[in-house]
Design goal:
alpha/beta; 2 domains; EC 2.7.1.11; 11 strands; 40% helix; 341 residues; Rossmann fold; binds 6-O-phosphono-beta-D-fructofuranose
């Protein structure tokens, strides 16, 4: 078979493990030809292709990013995009496509599948908000990075008697904030799932600093928002594609805390540091498992499905079941973050 392969949307650590597994399993086990598209769906429209060989995947396991390149480009939203996709797939005689991506890429995959193309998707995003899978590639590494950052911020917070606000990624779900907040021992975690009340935050911090501590760490997800009707009026700051702008909520929360408590307060925006560098073994293993499973699925004739981790097992879920949905942090995990504050 001639199988196309692409990585789309934001990059993350662990993508190369998945690419490597697809190439190894495709070439070695089945004798397929793997055609890599550069820069996600953009490369499909542009016909930017390369035939993947074992040479391409040598020593890539510890490398972050994606050796295929990626782009935030959705063919169904671009003029003539879907026609371009179909033309390239026909010219390259692609029989099935493996798409590694987050919600945007998978939504596009669903649109391309509707045109009759066989698709198997692999979920990746440091945000861990792809519906239908317990874990997405990249999340484990991002939580490690954010936790290490919080550990480091602890010592300087304590030395300077400061409130340290740490903004982490997560526009629609607070997986990184909640997990790194718990692991790093943050006093407060603000996640999109649970709008916050600035009055309560201020009361809590004042009480804590008066009674038993001289510093506090507040972890804020990019998509956190105050409760409607509460004393902090705020509207999410959006960019030209309607995306939440990094740093905006962190800055506002830090300013509110500084003004209302009088405590010396600083903001750290972790940003793309969370997406870079060496993947953890967990992300390498997850990427490898998903890559092998995707090639097996295509070889069995499965189509329009996504590989997913459920209760330690890799399974396949229909793309249409997950398209357009967000996996939110469950209440029990949010509660642990609250209890430990
Ligand atoms: O890929 C997911 C993500 O890292 C989000 O956590 C973050 O909000 C967004 O991408 C940043 O996107 P960009 O790299 O396009 O600025």
């Amino acid at each position: 078979m001639r199988i196309g392969l692409l990585t789309g949307g934001g990059d993350c650590p662990g993508l190369n493990a998945a690419i490597r597994a697809v190439v190894k399993q495709g070439l070695g086990e089945y004798g397929h030809t793997i055609i890599g598209f550069r820069n996600g769906w953009k490369g499909v429209v542009d016909g930017d292709v390369r035939t993947m060989s074992r040479e391409d995947i040598r020593n890539v396991l510890p490398q972050g990013g994606t050796l295929l390149g990626t782009a935030r480009f959705h063919p169904h939203s671009a003029d003539g995009g879907l026609d371009g996709v179909m033309a390239t797939l026909e010219a390259e005689r692609i029989e099935a496509l493996i798409c590694i991506g987050g919600d945007g890429t998978l939504h596009a995959a669903n649109k391309v599948a509707e045109q009759g193309i066989k698709i198997v998707a692999i979920p990746k995003t440091i945000d861990n908000d792809v519906y239908g899978t317990d874990l997405s590639i990249g999340f484990h590494t991002a939580v490690n990075i954010a936790t290490e950052a919080i550990d480091r911020i602890h010592t300087t917070a304590e030395s300077h008697n400061r409130v340290m606000v740490v903004e982490v990624m997560g526009r629609h779900a607070g997986w990184i904030a909640v997990n790194a907040g718990i692991a790093g021992g943050a006093e407060l975690v603000l996640a999109p799932e649970e709008p916050f009340d600035m009055d309560r935050i201020v009361k809590f911090l004042k009480h804590r600093h008066r009674s038993h501590a001289n510093f506090s760490i507040v972890v804020v997800a990019e998509g956190a928002l105050p409760k409607e009707g509460s004393s902090m009026q705020y509207e999410a700051q959006l960019g030209k594609f309607g995306e939440i702008i990094a740093g905006a909520i962190g800055e506002r929360v830090a300013n509110e805390i500084a003004t209302r408590t009088g405590f010396d307060t600083r903001l750290t925006i972790l940003g793309h540091v969370q997406r870079g560098g060496t993947p953890t073994p967990t992300d390498r293993i997850l990427g490898s498992r998903f890559g092998v499973a995707a090639v097996d699925a295509i070889s069995r004739g499965e189509t329009n499905v996504m590989t997913a981790l459920r209760n330690e097992e890799v399974v396949l879920v229909p793309l249409e079941e997950i398209a357009g949905k967000v996996k939110h942090v469950p209440d029990d995990l949010l509660r642990v973050a609250r209890v430990l504050a």
